[in-house]
What does this fold into?
Amino acid sequence: MTRTAADSKQPRRTQEQRSTEMRTRLLDATIDCLVEYGYAGTTTPRVAERAGVTRGAQVHHFGSKTDLVVAAISHLAQRRTDAAMQEIGRIKTGTDPIATVLDFLWELHQGPLFIAAMELWVAARVDRMLAAEMGKVEPFVNNAVLMALSRYVPDEVHRKDARDFVYTAMDALRGILVSSFIDSDPERAHRRWLRASEHLRDAARVRLPGILLGE
It folds into this structure.
């Protein structure tokens, strides 16, 4: 029997599906605006315009900038976690696991997701509500990174030292990247990271002998 045109149409989306898609568009647009305009320049009209929706639709889902940003925090955390999982999947393990870990951290902190997170971290300094929301999701993101890297530390006895090493590396890297926002040389941050990586490798030799060094 020949299928009719009506039979071949995709099933209509439910109201719940349309609502979810609209919220996702608004949250993605919020992240885009954080990157392009900064926190102060992220306004609800700009978000609605970027998302391609009416102001009325935006207000229906998020009544204020605060509502929008609070929801975007969790959305951003999920996207950052997904990016960590994808990035670890691309890693080709070589003979120098510590270099692999440091390269992974560098790649993970590139791109718009990290910039959007930085905008929210800075804004949270004087906004206690934002700080509380960020405090809920940052451990979730960091734990995902640590779990992704746990394959390089099979010895559970050394897991705490390895975790402390990764946190120290992320602290150093984030400091370098923050200061690079005012640097006219786009390559300087990477050179500084490579220099810091040499010191981190020395620390790993002391605290993690043979565990992360491929020995």
